[in-house]
Each structure stands twice: as structure tokens, then as C-alpha cells.
Amino acid sequence: MYKIFNEGMIEVITGPMFSGKSEELLRRLRTLEYAKLKPLVIKPKFDTRFSAEEIVSRSGISHKTHILDNIKDIYDLLKQDSYKAVVIDEAHFFGHDLVLVADDLANLGYLVIIAGLDQDYLRQPFGPMPELMAIAERVTKLQAICVVCQHAASTSFRKVASNKTNLLGNYHEYEARCRKCHVHGEKMKKVND
Ligand SMILES: [Zn+2]
């Protein structure tokens, strides 16, 4: 177990959909509570799937959170209490500004914990995540189980026809797949077009 008490560092928790990123984040939040390191919890405005004011894992555990449209507004929230840590969920929906803000907050001494998808549904690096992974002290990359072959899965496969990168969804729209089954699935989509 690493020392979560380290001041001024970034941890990124990433992986495909259904890999347990929110559960991992909630586990970190419990550790912060035991350590009495008060966290400010942030989600982008975009993600309102489960609850507007809470981080809710698919297993149903939750934690109160602030919704931000612009990540730079985080500085106003930080002034309101003696926060020691910043926890950000669904971080792939924030723009490049998140890279600058996360780096700045770590430099100021905050423990910054960020969860988000590393790849979009076409396996392309997603938003600010690649850069965040590069500047982080620690990266936890999770895997799900491929629904086709049951091997470890690192991609989110979109089952429905839509070209929107930010299409939100759950089990109906997406499934976890390994590389091989993702590539095969995309080929089959083109054949069926
Ligand atoms: Zn597979």
C-alpha cells in the first residue's frame, strides 16, 4: 500500500467502462476519510446518468460531489473549506484545462485523485486523460472482462450506431471488450453498413 498521505501528487485511475473505476475512487474516498484528509469531490456537468450530486458506482455506493462545467471554477470551491485532497470522476469529459489545473493543484500541495476513461469507443486516447497519465505520480489501470471471449478487456465497445464521442450510456449502449473482439466488432459494423 502506498502512502496516501503524500502531499502534492496526482493519481490517475483509468480503464474501460465496467472496470470498477468509480468503486476504486470510492475506496480512495474512504481511506481519505480515515486519514482525516478532507476531499473536494468533482464531476463534470455532462455526467448525470446516475445522480447529479453524487458519485455512484454501479454497485450502488455513493459520495456527495460538486458538479462543475468549467474545471477552473474549482479554485472558488477550494476557498470555501480546508480541503487537503481533490477527487475528480469522469475526468475524460473535462477539456485540456484539467491537465493544467491538476498539475497546479498538486504543486500547491493537494493530493489529486482522478478517474476517467483512457480510450473512447474507437480506442482513441480520450480528452485530457493521456496527458494526465503522463504527469501523474501513480497510474492505476483497471481491466474489465470481455463479454465475447471472457478474457481481460481494456476497451469500451459501442453496440449502438452513433458517431458522437460523448454519447453517455450504460449496459444497453456499451460493453467491455478485449482488443481482438473490439477490432472484430468494428469490422462487422462496417460490413453491416
Ligand atoms: Zn474478447
From TrEMBL:
<dbReference type="Pfam" id="PF00265">
    <property type="entry name" value="TK"/>
</dbReference>
<feature type="binding site">
    <location>
        <position position="181"/>
    </location>
    <ligand>
        <name>Zn(2+)</name>
    </ligand>
</feature>
<feature type="active site" description="Proton acceptor">
    <location>
        <position position="90"/>
    </location>
</feature>
<keyword id="KW-0808">Transferase</keyword>
<dbReference type="InterPro" id="IPR027417">
    <property type="entry name" value="P-loop_NTPase"/>
</dbReference>
<feature type="binding site">
    <location>
        <position position="149"/>
    </location>
    <ligand>
        <name>Zn(2+)</name>
    </ligand>
</feature>
<comment type="similarity">
    <text>Belongs to the thymidine kinase family.</text>
</comment>
<keyword id="KW-0418">Kinase</keyword>
<keyword id="KW-0862">Zinc</keyword>
<comment type="subunit">
    <text>Homotetramer.</text>
</comment>
<keyword id="KW-0547">Nucleotide-binding</keyword>
<feature type="binding site">
    <location>
        <position position="146"/>
    </location>
    <ligand>
        <name>Zn(2+)</name>
    </ligand>
</feature>
<feature type="binding site">
    <location>
        <position position="178"/>
    </location>
    <ligand>
        <name>Zn(2+)</name>
    </ligand>
</feature>
<dbReference type="InterPro" id="IPR001267">
    <property type="entry name" value="Thymidine_kinase"/>
</dbReference>
<keyword id="KW-0237">DNA synthesis</keyword>
<dbReference type="GO" id="GO:0004797">
    <property type="term" value="F:thymidine kinase activity"/>
</dbReference>
<feature type="binding site">
    <location>
        <begin position="15"/>
        <end position="22"/>
    </location>
    <ligand>
        <name>ATP</name>
    </ligand>
</feature>
<protein>
    <recommendedName>
        <fullName>Thymidine kinase</fullName>
        <ecNumber>2.7.1.21</ecNumber>
    </recommendedName>
</protein>
<keyword id="KW-0479">Metal-binding</keyword>
<keyword id="KW-0963">Cytoplasm</keyword>
<keyword id="KW-0067">ATP-binding</keyword>
<feature type="binding site">
    <location>
        <begin position="89"/>
        <end position="92"/>
    </location>
    <ligand>
        <name>ATP</name>
    </ligand>
</feature>
